[in-house]
Structure formats: C-alpha cells, structure tokens
Amino acid sequence: GGSSFVVRARVCAWAMAVVLRLGVLVATAAVVGVFAAAIRWRTKPPMAAVEPGGAWTMDFTDPSVADDWKAVDDRIMGGSSRSRVVHADGVTSVEGELVVAGGGFASVRYGRELRLDPEVDSLLMEARGDGRLGYKLTLQTSAFPGGVSYQCLLPLSESPGAEFEQLCLPLSDFRASSRGRAMPDAPPLRAADVRTMGLMLSRYEVGGGVKADIPPGAFRLQLRGLRAVTIAR
Length: 233
Prior knowledge:
Order of helices and strands: HEEEEEEEEEEEEEE
Largest sheet: 7 strands, antiparallel
C-alpha cells in the first residue's frame, strides 16, 4: 500500500545519495591524482642539474639521460655514419658506425640548453673508450652560433680493454671549428656563453684538417658522469 511505496521511495533516495557521494569521491580522487602526477613531474630531479654551490653535473648512470640526446651525423654533409645514445649496464653509451667516405664523423647532441657558472674553467668526465682515437666533446655558444663548435679531444686510453678514466678538460683546451675547418677568428671560449654540447667520433683534427689514422667501423664510448668545476682560484 502507501506505506510500502514510501519505504521504496526512501530506499531509492538513499541509494541515489550514496551513488552521488561515491561519484564525488571518485572525481576528487582523480583530480588529486592528476595534481600529484604534475607535482612529481615538476619536482623530478633533472638529469643535468646544478648542485649546491653552483656545480653543474650530468649523471650518465641514470637510465633516462639517453632520451635527452639525438644523433647529428655526417649525413648533413653527404656522409653515411650513424650513431645513437643508449643506456645499458648502468652507464650511457654513444655507439654506432663511422664511415669516412663522404663525411667522416658520427656525433650526438644534448637537446637541452646549458647554463654554466661564469667561473667554471674545466669539465670533469668519467668515461671509457674502445681504444679508438678521435673522440671529442663539443660545446656550442651564444657568442659564436651558426654551426661553429668548440672542440676538445678526449685523452682516453688507446687500449681496448681499459677501465673507466677520470678526464679533466680545461676550457682553454677547446678550439673553435666548423665542418672540419679551424676558426681562428672565433672569440675565446667562456663558460657563461655555453648553451649546449655534443660528443663525436671524428677523423678531423680539433683545430681543423683530416686525421688519417681514424679508421672506419663500429665504435662505443661509455660515460658515467660529467661535471663543470672551477679549478683555478
């Protein structure tokens, strides 16, 4: 009768209220999850970071650091060398194949902008080569854009079975070059002007000209870390 209808109506109303409350809770949880994910993304430590005291570092043992690098090989000059950046065995590697005909270099470039402290005068690198000569670190600056890079040869062991080495690369050792040619009119390299960097295997000398003893073939350069420091006081 009428009383049972009233009871059913109250039950339906109660059920609808429960459903609405559950919907609000689910929506609130979803919003909270979105904001939490955004906070985690924004607060995730960058692969290249400024440590307390102003020291810039790059941790090549982090698996995600390889994603910030891209290949820029000699195909832009008609060559056919190829390179890639991968993470394996706890380190980041630059690897590929060097083809000296038509070009003569395989390189990768860091995809983010750099900002070094003006007082930085050296870069410290922990790396292991494969016995090859011709590995270089390159720096591009805002003072001399347009394809010009400052290059420094990595003083790695020529033994294929060498262990990781600690390399010190003073900024004063970097030389300006463009497409294998020396740029004697380029201004001196200053840390404050550096905006990006790269790594390469090249048959060209740092100051320009062809280095004949860089053979073609597979290569692999392994990296653990890179740090900008001030040594001279």
